[in-house]
Design goal:
The chain has 92 residues and is mainly alpha-helical. It has one domain. The chain is built from three helices and no strands. It starts with a helix and ends with a helix.
C-alpha cells in the first residue's frame, strides 16, 4: 500500500518539476518573471530529481550552473539509496 503512495508521490513530483523547468526556460527567453533557483533545487531535493535532470536536458536549462550540475546528481543518489534501504529493510 505504502509503495503505491510513494510511487504516485514520485511520479507527480517529477512531472511537476519537469514542467516547471520548461516553464522557467520559456519565461527566461521572454524575459519575464522566473521561478527561483532555490525552488527548482528544493523540488529536486524532495524527490523530483529525475524530472529536474530530464528538464535540464530536454529544455537545455540550468546546464551551465555548477550548483545544479553538482546537487541534482547528489539528490538522485540520495533518493536511490533511501529507496533501496526502505525496500531492503521492508519499511514500506
Amino acid at each position: 500500500m505504502y509503495i503505491k503512495v510513494l510511487l504516485i508521490y514520485y511520479l507527480c513530483l517529477n512531472l511537476v518539476t519537469f514542467f516547471l523547468y520548461g516553464l522557467d526556460k520559456r519565461k527566461a527567453k521572454q524575459r519575464q518573471w522566473r521561478i527561483s533557483e532555490r525552488v527548482l533545487l528544493w523540488l529536486g531535493a524532495l524527490g523530483g530529481v529525475a524530472g529536474a535532470l530530464a528538464g535540464m536536458q530536454v529544455f537545455r536549462h540550468k546546464t551551465k550552473h555548477i550548483r545544479f550540475l553538482v546537487l541534482n546528481p547528489i539528490f538522485l543518489i540520495g533518493h536511490m539509496v533511501m529507496l533501496y534501504l526502505l525496500l531492503y529493510y521492508h519499511v514500506i
